[in-house]
Amino acid sequence: MMPVEEGAWRSFRFSTDDLPETARVEAVRELHQRAALPGEIEPLEPLPNCRLRVDITKHALPGLGIMSGVLAGVRQAARSRAGACGSEDDLLLAINLSGRSIARQDDTELKLENGDAMLATRGPAGFSIIRPMPVRFMGLRVPRDILAPLAGRLDEAPLQLIPRGTEALNLLVVYAGGLFTAGPPQTPLLRRLVVGHIQDLVAATLAAVRGGRGTPERRAIAAARWRAIMADIAAHLGDCELSAAAVARRQRVTPRYVHKLFEQEGLVFSRFVLAQRLACARRMLTDMRLAQRSISAVAFEVGFGDLSYFNRAFRRCYGATPSQVRRSAERNDWPC
Question: What is the pTM of this model?
Answer without folding.
Answer: 0.61
